[in-house]
Structures are given as structure tokens and as C-alpha cells.
Hints:
Blueprint (H helix, E strand, L loop, with lengths): L2 H6 L2 H10 L1 H8 L4 H26 L7 H23 L13 H11 L1 H21 L8 H28 L5 H23 L1 H4 L2
Amino acid sequence: MSKFNKIFFYPSSLVLILVNLIPLLGVLFFSWDIFTVIILYWMESAVIGFFNILKMQKINNYKFTPLVPFFIMHYVIFMFVHLFFILQLFQPNLELASGQVAAFVIVFEYFKALIISLSFIFLSHGMSFVFNFIKKQEFKYVSLKKQMFVPYRRIIIMHIIIMLAGAGIIYTNYSQEVSAVVFLVILKIIFDLGSHIFEHRKNILN
């Protein structure tokens, strides 16, 4: 089997691509805007953090380590700071009666709206966790300290790209929003697949 087939027909890679197409459907058929897509990607970061906790626990043979609560505390702060910058750059379609935007209300309302999409994202990362990290025993080849920082590398680079692209949409006054958001989704798929291949390259390419 060629490397191309190995990459695109590897089970977790295929699921990743299919799940990442959901925002594309949302943009084309359900009038999702740039904020809806970006807040979904922000929620995906929470899913990544959740599975990273499970990975750290597996590496440590499910014994207590202070690195896990430290990661949780640090990651929660990171998520709130990330959300703050999103709310500063993009305008959600939700305001309180006072006219002040409340972050927790926005997250809750969009969570309800995006629960199905988020469920598929959870399924994708869960499948990768079980299939690659547990079944393929990737946990044997990474240290606890190294695993603690794995999510940041992927999330920071990905969201810098996404937010820059989103800012470009705003700069054009949303004149080509649908086309631009479609491009954003495709860009995210490419980046996600590249990160996935790099992280699981020993299993995918061998």
C-alpha cells in the first residue's frame, strides 16, 4: 500500500477528515458564521485537553501524580485566555439585555447549538486515543512531562492560523464570508491531518 493510501485510509485519519467536514456543512447549509466555526474549534481544544488527561494517567499507570492537576489548572487558564482573545477579535451573535457580552452565556448557548458537531469531534479524538494511544501502545514511547505539553503545540499553532484567517475575513467586512470560512475549514483539515500524521507517524507509515 502506498504512503498516500496509508495516510488517508488509516482509520483515525479517515474519521478525522470526515469529522472536520461537519463545519463545512454548517457553513454551506446551516448559515454558520466565522464565530460559530471558531468557537467550535475552541471547544475542540477542551476535548483535546480531556483526552490528554487520560493519556497522562495511562502513561503513569493510573497512579496519582501532581502533574495531572497542574496540567488541568494550567489548561483551564489557557482556555479562558484563549476565549478572551476570541471574543475580542470576533463578534458573537449573542448579547445580554444590558448590552454586555458574557463569556459563560456565549459558551453555554453555542454548546447547545453545536452539541452534535462536538459529539462527533469527541468521537474522533476518542477513537484516536483508543486505537493509537492504547491499542498501538503509543503510551510506551512518550514521557509524562512530554505528554503534558503535547496539546499546546498543536492548539497554539492551529489557532494562530485560524484567528489570522478569521481576522482577514473581518478586514474584508465579511464581503466573502462564506468562501473565506470554507477556506478556513479546509485549512484546518490540512493542518489537523498533518499534525495527526506527525503524532502517529510510527503507526501510520509503518
